[in-house]
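Contributing new records

If you add data, match the layout below exactly. Sequence lines come first and carry their own label; structure lines follow with theirs. Keep one chain per record. Anything else will be rejected by the validation script.
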Amino acid sequence: MTAKERMAIEPQKMPEQDPAVRAHNMREVALGYTPEQAQREATRCLNCPTKPCMQGCPVSVNIPGFLAQATAGDFKGALATIRESSLLPAVCGRVCPQEKQCQNFCTLGKLFKDPEKAVAIGRIERFCADFSAQAGQVGGDEAFNPSSTRPHAKRVAVVGSGPASITCAADCARAGFKVTMFEAFHKPGGVLVYGIPEFRLPKAIVQREIDGLKALGVDVVTDFVVGRTLTLSDMLDDGYDAIFVGTGAGLPKFMGIEGENLVGVFSANEYLTRANLMKAYDEDHVDTPFWHGRRVAVLGGGNVAMDASRMALRLGAEKVYLVYRRSEAEMPARREEMHHAREEGVEFLMLQNAKRVLGDEQGRVKGLECLTYELGEPDASGRRSPVAVPGSEFTLDVDTVVVAVGNGANPLVAATTPGLDVDAKGHVLVDPVTRMTSIPGVFAGGDIVLGAATVILAMGEGRAAAKGMADWLNRNAGEGETK
């Protein structure tokens, strides 16, 4: 097929639940491609010799390679190609911002001067992973098999079980190290299970990847809070030869406005953790305490704000406002998530922001006083700075406020580990190549280093740390040391 013929193929639309129906259930919104759609969408790839799409992939997936296999209908082979670089294709295909990464560099999008015309790389990736899983393959495919059959005597501890930790644990296990993963919650998966809602990322998919880790020989220990149950120093004393810290950015930020201590004000972290990990939406089967807001205001403009807004609808809210101090053009959330939220009934209040939360005599939220804003000069992020309009106060009639303005680094490990260097924001400082911290044998990656980032960026950090750990351990192992 010629390039001109490929360019004539229309982008394949992803089937979705009807907005009026899905806003009241927890089933996945996007239903996924059919095999015919996946093959047809992959056929749109122009097979550019320079492979520009790979420039936007933090883990350097061979994108043209797997698209060529998908074009031929070899979806199992396509997944094997993806898994050479990425351990979580079913996850990344759903939640990573491909439009800002691989698809942003797609030649088709550039030729048409329309990013919507880029090859839907993420959707094809998702299809390949789901297709293989439906065929009953353990962990998605045989790529979970270790690349090394010679076990090492060295033991590795992985703290946390989010994307960076999963990737680091898998790579270390493949290299033959004995790996134990420690998770503070009762279920592994990190932000994939407590932060991202079921309707965006079904938890059975995350469990499938955890099962793949276990098939590699990784031991997973839950209800274990490193920094409380044991410190990093304790773990080194107990015989772990290296430790990876991937505890994420789990410290919620608030706005510091009057009324944030009222009953009915939540951080998005707590709100989503109760709903996702603790399944507050399933009242027939769980007893998770939950505040069922009737009129909800969500403060923020990122993906977490979108998740909280859409979750509020599914928990029975009659009205949900998304309050953001800049315009829609400056919002960091994915366009797709914004589109879905609007379709489902979330009302976007742009260029507005909370001034104070109003309470009643019982100390419960009864309203939100807001200010109107206008855009000034660009700030350090390149976005135009919001400037309050004097005298523009107005009040929203709400009984619930969810604050989704970002998260800071989890402070527990740093606070309980003397000698662990962190920056002013609490992010762990690491060597940019090896990812080793200021403590020999202790490595770190993901959001605890980068700040809140994407799943695929966290995976790249975990991969880099695993390589740094393996090099360091092998240098200290002695030639031929085995168990």
